[in-house]
Amino acid sequence: MQLWAFATNPAIGSAGVTISTGDPNNQPAGLLGVSSQQERYGLGSRCHSVRKHVVLSRRGLTSAGVVHAGDVRSPTVYCAATRRVLIRLLISYNASHKPVNATIEVLTQPKARAGKTPRSKRIGYVQWSPKQSVSYYSSACTSQ
User: Fold this and answer.
1) What are the pLDDT digits (tens) for 83-93?
2) Could you report the per-residue pLDDT of 62-99, keeping only the tens digit for each?
3) Mean of the per-residue pLDDT values for the chain?
4) Which residue, among 90, 106, 73, has the nearest Cα to 1 in the 3D structure?
5) Whole-angstrom distance between the N-terminal and C-terminal Cα of the chain?
6) DSSP state, 39?
7) Using the 8-state DSSP alphabet, how is residue 112 labeled?
8) In whole angstroms, what separates CA 111 from the centre of its chain?
9) Cα(128)–Cα(40) distance, rounded to whole angstroms?
């Protein structure tokens, strides 16, 4: 899984968050996309709603650093993840229906085995706005 979040980048002219899965060098499949220039967020066709409640928290995760508006560089987080992941998002919009801030958490969703309830693990967390973005990641991830 790849998580890329950036504040307003002058080279692109926007700010955004992208979460994708698969080989990052060979057409990764998009799971979630948020852009300061788009009216809504986008979900991949393989995504659907679930009833599991996820508490938004970055507890136990390491910061990949703060990206401020005007920065050209922004970290990308790469994580080994289960086949399915849970994504919880909380997004606020302005009067023009464009996102002004978002909090997003990504957790693993392992399969149940031998009657045991699987435990999800936090692997990524983002606090994003066009002015500033901070990504957090677990020890199962790397940041570049």
Assistant:
1) 889 999 999 99
2) 999 999 999 988 999 999 988 889 999 999 999 999 99
3) 92
4) 106
5) 13
6) S
7) P
8) 22
9) 15
Residues 6+ apart with CB under 8 A from 21: 1, 2, 28, 29, 31, 81, 85
State pLDDT tens for residues 26-59.
888 999 999 999 988 999 998 988 888 888 999 9
Query: To 5 degrees, how large is the angle CA 59–CA 101–CA 47?
Result: 75
Whole-number percent of the chain with pLDDT over 70: 100
Length of the chain, in residues = 144
Taking the C-alpha atoms of residue 26 and residue 39, their distance in angstroms, rounded to an integer, is 28
Contacts 24+ apart (CB under 8 A), 37-41: 37/13, 37/98, 38/98, 38/99, 39/96, 39/97, 39/98, 40/97, 41/89, 41/91, 41/99, 41/102
